[in-house]
């Protein structure tokens, strides 16, 4: 009779002695993720969630409100560490690392694009894009500026480099936010409803930018979205229901 493998054994079997997984072609691996909320009452929001994402994939996560998709994204982003299971990025185990270690890893390897751009209104487009590079602390000011300008140029926003972000249109602001996400050449871009505040024209522009980044720059992108048209045009859909993956 075959022995039944427990959850802890499954996790241990996927680790090496160093605490990392054996090298794979997956840039991100989520293994048996479970997450609970305890207020106002106990709620099992993520239930044994496991999947892999390969380098250069453009993946959308969909599902009805409350299914756990945004919660999952925040776990993957390392901003929420109150869970069980394991998350690996570039074969590095992130689960269990300190907040300082995660902050450093996040700034270097993960770029964020949110529904709202979160640009500093008193800063120019260029200075907004420079901020993550300056925070990383490995580039000079001129190098940060050069990197930021390069990313703005990729997105055809370099003509607005010196313009205050508050003076840009909504679509332009989101393109600057994408440039900011790219400035440290992250392993993964994570988007939480990245086109949720945009009209149909700017939604298409932003989607085409993300698609092109995946295709021409081999950029890995994970986006939570309610937009079915957005989702069906990505490389792969992960669909969630009641805290579980029902399609991937």
Describe the structure.
The chain has 248 residues and is α/β, with parallel strands linked by helices. It has a single domain, classed as P-loop containing nucleotide triphosphate hydrolases (Rossmann fold), CATH 3.40.50.300. The chain is 35% helix and 25% strand. The protein contains 8 helices and 10 strands. A 6-stranded mixed sheet has the order 6-7-8-3-9-10. Strands 2-1-4-5 form a 4-stranded antiparallel sheet, covered by helices on one side. A hairpin with a 2-residue loop joins strand 4 and strand 5. Helix 4 crosses helix 5, helix 4 packs parallel to helix 6 and helix 5 crosses helix 6. The protein is globular, with a radius of gyration of 19 Å. The two termini are 31 Å apart.
Number of domains: 1
Helix content range: 25-40%
Q: Nearest-angstrom radius of gyration? A: 19 Å
Return the CATH architecture: 3-Layer(aba) Sandwich
Shape descriptor reads globular
Helical stretch count?
A: 8
What is the residue-averaged pLDDT? Answer: 88
User: What kind of sheet is the major sheet?
Assistant: 6 strands, mixed
Low-confidence stretches: 1-22
CATH top level class name: Alpha Beta
Order of helices and strands: HEEEHEEHEHHHEHEHEE
CATH homologous superfamily title: P-loop containing nucleotide triphosphate hydrolases
C-alpha end-to-end distance: 31 Å
Count all strands and give the number. 10
**What structural class is derived from the secondary structure elements?**
alpha/beta
Strand order of the largest sheet: 6-7-8-3-9-10
């Amino acid at each position: 009779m075959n022995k039944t493998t427990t959850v802890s054994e499954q996790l241990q079997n996927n680790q090496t002695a160093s605490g990392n997984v054996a090298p794979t072609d997956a840039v991100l691996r989520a293994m048996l993720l479970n997450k609970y909320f305890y207020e106002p009452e106990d709620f099992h929001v993520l239930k044994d969630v496991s999947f892999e994402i390969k380098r250069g994939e453009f993946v959308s996560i969909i599902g009805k409100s409350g299914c756990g998709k945004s919660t999952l994204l925040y776990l993957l982003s390392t901003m929420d560490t109150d869970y069980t299971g394991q998350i690996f990025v570039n074969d590095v185990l992130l689960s269990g690392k300190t907040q300082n270690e995660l902050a450093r890893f996040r700034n270097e390897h993960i770029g964020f694009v949110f529904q709202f751009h979160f640009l500093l209104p008193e800063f120019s487009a260029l200075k907004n894009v420079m901020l993550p590079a300056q925070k990383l602390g490995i580039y000079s000011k001129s190098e940060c500026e050069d990197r930021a300008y390069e990313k703005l140029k990729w997105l055809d926003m370099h003509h607005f480099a010196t313009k205050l972000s508050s003076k840009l249109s909504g679509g332009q602001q989101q393109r600057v936010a994408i440039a900011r996400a790219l400035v440290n050449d992250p392993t993964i871009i994570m988007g939480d409803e990245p086109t949720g505040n945009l009209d149909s024209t700017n939604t298409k522009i932003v989607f085409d930018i993300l698609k092109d980044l995946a295709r021409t720059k081999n950029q890995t992108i994970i986006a939570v979205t309610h937009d079915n048209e957005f989702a069906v045009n990505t490389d792969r859909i992960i669909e969630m229901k009641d805290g579980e993956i029902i399609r991937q």
